[in-house]
Write a structure and sequence with these properties.
The complex is a heterodimer.
Chain A lengths: L2 H5 L3 H6 L8 E10 L12 H16 L9 E4 L5 H9 L5 H4 L6 E4 L5 E5 L5 E8 L3 H16 L6 E2 L3 E2 L11 E8 L1 H5 L3 H10 L2 E5 L11 E6 L7 H29 L1 H17 L5 H16 L8 H10 L2 H5 L8 H16 L18
Antiparallel strand pairs in A: 1-5, 1-8, 2-3, 3-4, 4-5, 6-7, 8-10, 9-10
Helix pairs in contact in A: 10-11, 10-14, 11-12
Chain B lengths: L12 E7 L2 E7 L1 H6 L10 H16 L20 H7 L7 H4 L1 H11 L11 H25 L3 H15 L6
Helix pairs in contact in B: 2-3, 2-5, 6-7
The chains are: A alpha+beta, B mainly alpha.
The complex binds zinc ion (ZN) (2 copies).
One zinc ion (ZN) binds next to helix 4 of chain B.
Chain lengths: 367, 171
């Protein structure tokens, strides 16, 4: 196996990590953007300048105590296009960074909770990624990394504008705080648009993580801050945390009310999702995401006793194009990929017992 | 349907998002969508595009102060031009924030909660900021002393400001 594939945690283990509120919150992420003082931003830098920044930053970043022990630290011309795509699907690098080659780099700790991109849009994009709702902890972790780096390198900073970034939307704190949420209840109850509106009023953005337009595939939404200048990091983190907690409450309520008002509709959808996932011979990515969302809801509602939620989370990951391609020599085209996806799903869902709506635990305790 | 950004190519990407209680629909061609990171849901913010469009319009309208209308501003540190800024919505280097300060001001006001950084400060910048705050404080005290015709105190404040402004002054 190549260095990066060897380095990455196997999907089963990666999905088994748990955190507070992880029934509804997949993960929490805090990202900081930083640039070297006096050096042109990567997008406008000549190759020599980019290499100079790379040569200065890579050793400093890979020797960070927070990245120890033995982090992955490589130039972006090392991983193949497919391997970069794997990193994107695991949320460890941005799509933009996947297009980078020599002159850009990646440092990743073994737990995959710390990922530092060198020469992305900014000289440094550092992210802390934790399972469940752990925004404060993620901020603390990346704050420590940043403080540690500030002892070794001088970042571009302006007394009024704060940390200077290539794009003015990141100016100031350079912080992007985000949480990835599973909200099937709010979507089924047709309350999701109200929630999105309410959250947008607070200067936060809600968008579907997968898919285009208004549809959010798999009912997976990302909530993140839009503004980075004019408030402190703590204020931003706290506001996002508060909003996420409220959205969780609404999601719980929506699930209970759907179960009370339209149990047949709910059980029907979950049952059909199970049927298709366990019997399809070709299935698109879009359909898969939406059905997996229902399967996950079924697990949450207690319809699949003995099936862990983490199995569904792993299927979300394994259904992505680069993960499907993994271990195959021939390049899969879209049609072939749908067949391979269905095959993988049939095999994995085979072990899941048929849904039993009498087993729902939802009425007696909080779902 | 035409792309809203380049107004040339056919729009293939349609994105709707609620922003400040308003539905914003954006139709883009593949190239412009890519340029705006719309194919990257993890980093894409619609506001960037919406504000970005407004921003470039603003730059066109108020482009250049009176007297040098039409003349293009160029960053002497990195060669980035106001046309580059208009086109990309990005800056070339950290000094560009000084170079394009005028054009950026209203843009930042619309984009962010405020225009004064209130977050983390690096240690060396902390010292400079503390000094700046001290000078501001002294200046307001100087003004107050003059207005109450307390010229003795005023002279003291003036001297203190002079000392504080000296390079390497203790904070
Ligand atoms: Zn276009
Ligand atoms: Zn510049």
């Amino acid at each position: 196996m190549t260095p990066i594939l060897n380095f990455l945690i196997p999907t089963t283990d990666a999905c088994r990590r748990s955190g507070p509120q992880d029934k509804i919150v997949f993960s929490s992420r805090v990202r900081l953007a930083r640039n070297l003082r006096g050096a042109p931003f990567p997008g406008h830098a000549k190759k020599v300048d980019r290499v100079k920044a790379f040569d200065q930053l890579m050793p400093a970043v890979s020797r960070l105590p927070q990245a120890a022990p033995d982090p992955y630290a490589e130039s972006m011309d090392k991983p193949t296009a497919q391997e970069k795509q794997i990193l994107v699907e695991r949320h460890l690098i941005s799509r933009e960074h996947a297009t980078k080659t020599a002159g850009s780099g990646l440092v990743l700790n073994q737990e995959e909770t710390l990922s530092i991109m060198v020469n992305e849009e900014d000289h440094l994009r550092m992210q802390s990624l934790l399972p469940g709702l752990q925004l404060h902890l993620a901020w603390k972790a990346i704050d420590e990394v940043d403080t540690c780096l500030q002892e070794q390198v001088e970042f571009a900073f302006h007394p009024q504008y704060g940390f200077l970034t290539a794009c003015p939307t990141n100016l100031g704190t350079g912080i992007r705080v985000s949480a990835m949420l599973h909200l099937p209840g709010l979507v089924l109850a047709e309350q999701i648009n109200q929630i999105i509106q309410a959250v947008s009023k607070l200067g936060l953005a809600v968008r579907g993580l997968y898919g285009e337009g208004t549809q959010a595939l798999g009912n997976i939404f990302q909530i993140s801050n839009q503004q980075t200048l004019g408030e402190s990091e703590q204020e931003i983190v706290e506001r996002l945390n508060k909003v996420v907690l409220q959205v969780i409450d609404h999601e719980e309520d929506a699930r209970i009310s759907q179960l009370e008002k339209r149990p047949n509709v709910l059980f029907n959808q979950i049952g059909r999702a199970y049927g298709i996932l366990s019997h399809a011979h070709t299935i698109s990515s879009n359909e898969t995401m939406n059905l997996l969302s229902l399967l996950r809801l079924g697990v949450d509602l207690g319809l699949f006793p003995g099936t862990p939620r983490t199995l569904v989370d792993e299927l979300f990951l394994l259904s992505q194009p680069a993960h499907l391609q993994l271990g195959r020599v021939e390049k899969l085209d879209a049609d072939h990929r749908d067949v391979v996806r269905a095959e993988m799903l049939r095999q994995r869902v085979k072990g899941v017992s048929t849904p039993d709506h009498t087993k729902t635990t939802a009425k007696t305790e909080s779902i | 349907m035409q792309c809203q950004v380049c107004k040339k190519a056919q729009a293939k990407v349609h994105y709707t998002q609620i922003h400040e209680n308003q539905m914003k629909k954006v139709d883009l061609c593949d190239a412009c969508a890519k340029e705006n990171g719309i194919n990257d849901p993890a980093s894409f913010a619609l506001t960037e595009i919406v504000l970005g469009l407004g921003a470039s319009k603003k730059l066109e309208d108020g482009g250049g102060a009176p007297g040098n209308a039409g003349s293009e501003v160029t960053c002497i540190h990195c060669g980035f031009t106001s046309a580059d800024l208009k086109k990309s919505g990005r800056l070339g280097c950290s000094e560009c924030y000084g170079t394009f300060a005028e054009a950026l001001e209203s843009l930042l006001k619309n984009m962010h909660k405020g225009t004064q950084h209130r977050g983390k400060v690096p240690p060396n910048a902390r010292r400079a900021i503390d000094l700046e705050a001290r000078i501001l404080q002294l200046e307001s005290e100087l003004k107050a002393a003059i207005s109450r015709e307390d010229f003795e105190s005023a002279a003291q404040f003036r001297d203190a400001i002079k000392v504080a402004r000296q390079p390497g002054a203790p904070v």
